[in-house]
Amino acid sequence: MASGGGIQIPSRLPLLLAHEGVLLPGSTIRFSVDSPRNMQLVSQRLLKGTSLKSTIIGVIPNTRDPEQDTEDLPTLHTIGTAGIAVQVVGSNWPKPHYTLLITGLCRFRVSGLLKERPFVLAEVTPLCFTVTSEAPDTCAKVVRMLLLSVRNVFFFFSFLARLCVSLQLLGMLDMSVPAVAKFRRLLDSLPREMLPDVVASMIRTSNKEKLQVLDAVSLEERFRRTLPMLTRQIEGLKLLKKSRKMTPGSEKRVCYGGPFPGRQFSLDRDEDSDDDGDDTASLEKKVHGANMPEAALKVSLKELKRLKKMPQSMPEYALTRNYLDLMVELPWSRSTKDCLDIRAARVLLDNDHYAMEKLKRRVLEYLAVRQLKTSLKGPILCFVGPPGVGKTSVGRSIAKTLGREFHRIALGGVCDQSDIRGHRRTYVGSMPGRIINGLKTVGVNNPVFLLDEVDKLGKSLQGDPAAALLEVLDPEQNHSFTDHYLNVAFDLSQVLFIATANTTATIPPALLDRMEVLQVPGYTQEEKVEIAHRHLIPNQLEQHGLTPQQLHIPQESTQDIICRYTREAGVRSLERKIGAICRAVAVKVAEGHRLPETDASTLETSREGHREERLHLKRSTDKAAPPEMPIVIDQMALKDILGPPLFELEVSERLTLPGVALGLAWTPLGGEIMFVEASRMEGEGQLTLTGQLGDVMKESAHLAISWLRANAKTYQLTNMVGAPDPLEGTDIHLHFPAGAVTKDGPSAGVTIVTCLASLFSGRLVRSDIAMTGEITLRGLVLPVGGIKDKVLAAHRAGVKRVILPKRNEKDLDELPANVRAQLDFVTAGNLDEVLNASFDGGFPGAQARPHVSSKL
Ligand SMILES: Nc1ncnc2c1ncn2[C@@H]1O[C@H](COP(=O)(O)OP(=O)(O)OP(=O)(O)O)[C@@H](O)[C@H]1O
Questions:
Q1: Predicted ipTM of the assembly
Q2: Could you confirm whether the keyword Hydrolase appears in this record (predicted)?
Q3: How far is the C-alpha of 278 from the C-alpha of 38, rounded, in Å?
Q4: Is ligand 1 within 6 A of the CB of residue 355?
Q5: Domain for residue 334, yes or no?
Q6: CATH number, domain containing residue 566
Q7: What's the pTM value of the predicted model, to 2 decimals?
């Protein structure tokens, strides 16, 4: 260890790599840190350490820390300055960075690198100078001489500064008169070996010159290098004084040529402050012209007054300035005029969206009420449905019909309430919340705000953003919404909020209560084909610069894409697949533009008799002839572009053994088919359940087994050795495939019973049937939710018959007519009816039992 200004310098120092600014011993510099190794140094060393030693770091000048952590370290400058970090300030804006205030203690030489990651650590040799040790007789003499001249020069310098001030040439030095005196005292009290470093850091010098002073290890050399800089500064001041005398009050800048060409002294800040004056004047004008409410105007004027008194270099200046800029930019009273025509709105909604009749009807009702009654306290609509069913795009259409600005606020994953309400201005890097930011972006106070994915709001230590949304969405309160950053109320009552979600289950009840939920179910296959041909294909063609004359996707191919390449409730995947086709065709078309016509033999005759080229993309060679338009996407082309089909109709293939049944499940992504498999083996009557099941689903399995054991005799179910209790000497394993997906809920009850009945009876469940329903211990079938999505999933999977609880019969009305026509529905009130419908020719014993009916 060595000592620097009374502080022990460790022999191993973490190094801060600084490419801007040179820290000299005795001076204090601010460093901005945002590169990986330097950031790690701050977070792992400075912020974690608790001792004084942990605040001492080495600053290596003239060395850039690589932007990527993986990049190799550049050659380090060999001499640096050990310094103590006296202040660390962190900020996340505009990107994560720290600002360090470091006071230099003493020079060191890097003797060896110990590690490069996560920050640079090096073995260092301190170079703290002492006159007695380094310079015995002669050197000490020179040093004394130099010290004398330096002190004299300084005396002159301070004298000159006083002179300038007294002549009132430099307004900026008004403040520095006591500072000059202080400076004198400081110089007198400083140990002489520190003088050159301190002087070099105070006068106007370039980094290159400072680096030369740092590199001068011997004190004599250091004095020699500092002296010319000091002399130059004085000469500059003299020259300035002379020119002021010649043209009093007119010249503000003096170009100093001579021995240091190119250096420009601008010691006065009159011009800057003039700029500043203009700036604040124009800001004041804007504040008055922004049409703010009285309270906001009062706050703005107060801030403006503070701003005028602040020097620009103060960090708070920028903060106040940004705040005022936001205040004048906000649309306090700027709005667009609604141009609502219900008939036109109906046409526009119909043109933009196929199907979704119920949703469109409700949206039209909503718009009609708004047209009749302009008081704006209408409900807040929340569209709930699987991804890709057009919730966001309906929101956009509503804005279009109203002639309003549209702004989407993505709330997925937001877990900090300041995202909604903003940060208080006392925080470093504080910003307004998304609502105020959105208003600033659209520039009017009556836009349509789409709060996307409200069901995916999170909660964290930083507060609950859903709670902050409560105020935003409450028409009774939102006329005085106060963002923490703004700190004055903004009237949100003109904003039209629409929310979207995939499920209502995760929306906090208080928030859900403020909204009117409109379910947007998935599409049937036919609807998807229509949507693809009316909207998706034309959109994608346009986006890829293609025309219908260049690409044709027949209906059968669209159907193929829907059944075999996508399995979804919405149409987003379908849109992506069409995009992939367009890209592939775009390549062909572009190639065709520049290729000469060559080999006609690659052209094939299509089914319709036209001459068309089939897309053999993988096999295409540069010699291929330009494609004949339009390029028709048939099955082969689909395989070439999209690869082998991702999904096959597997239902009938999987139901070929006893002990397998097909259930229907609901997920936030839409309905799904779900296989249930059972097997039995010798054992002690144990039940094993696999497939990531929730508690409710496990209970359903136990219920099903108990009911079957209780009714084994009636249904002639036996175990493997023919005993009446199916579980005697038998273990049962129930598995729900897609084991990685968590499953829960009671609606698999009937499927488990059917699956077990099939296992114990050895009979096959019908291969074209799917079912859903909760069971009770007495064998009743209770209603479940998500019927529409479940039935659509069954329809997608090619199922022909669906068993539903009797009390869900009313939900069938919501199904599209073609789905209802194509499926055979069995509504069951008890498990006998379920078993009878599930097996070809009924289930033995099921008919004989007296029927119990639900009183629930
Ligand atoms: N009925 C429809 N008619 C025309 N286009 C549709 C229809 N439904 C969906 N689309 C199109 O499907 C795409 C996806 O729609 P959108 O982004 O609105 O889905 P979303 O329901 O908001 O999904 P998410 O919940 O994932 O945000 C859009 O390009 C949209 O235009």
A1: 0.95
A2: yes
A3: 40
A4: yes
A5: no
A6: 1.10.8.60
A7: 0.58
